[in-house]
Amino acid sequence: MNSSSTPATLGVRQAQKLKTRQALLDAALKLLEEQSLSSLGLREVTRVVGVAPAAFYRHFRDMAELGVALVEESLASLHVMIRAVLAEQQEAEEVIDRSVEAVADHVRRHPAHVRFVARERHGGVRAVREAIAAELARFGDEVAAALAAQEASRGWSAEDVRMLAGLYVDHLVMTASAFVEASADDPAEERAEERAIADTARRQLRLISLGRRHWPAAS
Amino acid sequence: MNSSSTPATLGVRQAQKLKTRQALLDAALKLLEEQSLSSLGLREVTRVVGVAPAAFYRHFRDMAELGVALVEESLASLHVMIRAVLAEQQEAEEVIDRSVEAVADHVRRHPAHVRFVARERHGGVRAVREAIAAELARFGDEVAAALAAQEASRGWSAEDVRMLAGLYVDHLVMTASAFVEASADDPAEERAEERAIADTARRQLRLISLGRRHWPAAS
DNA sequence: CCCTGTGGCAAACAGTTGTTTACTGAAACC
DNA sequence: GGTTTCAGTAAACAACTGTTTGCCACAGGG
């Protein structure tokens, strides 16, 4: 029933392989909602997928390698999202509102991905930590480039721009973490707490924006 | 050789018990430098201490319970430190320098504790996460109280003060994480990277401080 | 001085883990 | 159409896990 839905350029062979690979990633991500990567067992994952333990090795050498793959999957979508927000040139107040709403939306749509990144950013698996750090750094560079292009940054040193970008990225990650942690509670209070978090995030961004406007730019 | 160094009010019995309990905590903390709590085994800890696995249950029901104990131990010292910084009323510029230096110092002295908190703040063990969150919240309240007492906060709403306190606490945790992550590299670059992190942190705090000064206080 | 409370021990338990081995069947290639 | 490639299998491996049991040695209070 789905033989025509696979990209024509891929053989049936490779398509099937990619399918189980994705199944492994999905199963791992689901299991990681309630534990951390360094305690996630290979057999645990294959059991959920319904595949023999040895089959795991056809796709990943380690659980660490699977983790790195999850990092890429998780941060790719975020990349797209924030790029869209940065693209539109608008009033500061409005870009703040849009950013916070975009983050909230992203968390609503990919809660497991966000949780995974927040958890493993300082987690027990070195390779995964480094993958996340590298991706967030590229992320910061991107934000810095966007900031530098704005007239509000005239006369700013590159380091100062990068510093501000870091502040924004850190704040974004903290806000996303707060959202995803709040959604773990019962859905009754979920809405209220979500709005409280968004409100605080907006005020914090407004304060930062204010500090930015009064930053002593070297001539 | 140390029979006279124990507090006289404790019997030999309780003193010995506390000693092995502390040994368990220390061993766990050391092991947690390279893995996360949810993957740390009970036997692993007792093996390092040199004690039978069953002995563990005389002190903790779970690894989770041990984790909560570690949270208290880890954040107690930080509490003391930041209280000292907040106590002294000084020029904004100087309080920033002192704060960053105090954080750097604290990380240098208790790297394992800081790493543990950063790792388990979003880690896989619910009870530990909640313990950390609760402690950080109390922490934020304390900072908020100190901020409210300053004349720079005249006319601020309580929510705004709490929002600013949250920003400071988050920033403190992020900075501490950055320090401890940097110290994992080779000691050659350690000094340089440490100064870079401190420098960025100071500039970020300065920008926040600037935003604070220009925040529209309701009359 | 004896008795009780208890921190720690050794042993055994059923499960689970990661990894290797030789294999099968079907897609892909010439 | 025969042959090669390879994703997935089943079974076995030693090593490890958390937890329970009965026991001992000994500090502390009477």
Automatic annotation (TrEMBL), chains A, B:
Pfam families: TetR_N
Keywords of the record: DNA-binding
Residue spans binding DNA: 41-60
MF term (GO), any: DNA binding
Limits of the HTH tetR-type domain: 18-78
Matches recorded under PROSITE patterns: HTH_TETR_2 (PS50977)
PANTHER family: HTH-TYPE TRANSCRIPTIONAL REPRESSOR FABR
Protein name: TetR family transcriptional regulator
Natural source organism: Streptomyces klenkii
Record lineage: Bacteria, Bacillati, Actinomycetota, Actinomycetes, Kitasatosporales
